[in-house]
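To fix ideas, we reproduce below one chain and its tokenised fold.
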Amino acid sequence: MQDKYGLRPRKVPKTKHKWLKRSLITIGILLLTVTVIFGSGAVYLLHINSKYTETVKLDLAKSPITQNIKIVDKNNQILSESTNRAYYVPSTIKGDNKNIPDLYLKALLATEDHNFYNRKTKGYDIKGMASAFVSAVKSKLGHG
């Protein structure tokens, strides 16, 4: 069999193919052996250390996890108060914000959302809400 120039393709000796095949098989077996050895060691160490561990059972019905949140103004008057019991209840401030220091509002916006005043959607972040929706869907599907 000849190519278009009248030359025969050069055949690679079978010994080179055998050498490559044997070396790849040897490397694969070595990697498999190392993986089995390290995996067995990890299981052994976990088994040895398991006698030092204990299971802590929380009975939330008898002792709920609580967190009290108070937001106060500069005169120490309570603007908002919230008690959380093993779930998140956001604290909100009702009414106008004339008692809240300007520095606090600037610090809050700087840490929470630096584009708050620049949006055309009156503070709502459409991209952020879409990202949260996608994350929620992924976590429900088990990909997240």
Notes: Residues 14-51 form one domain.
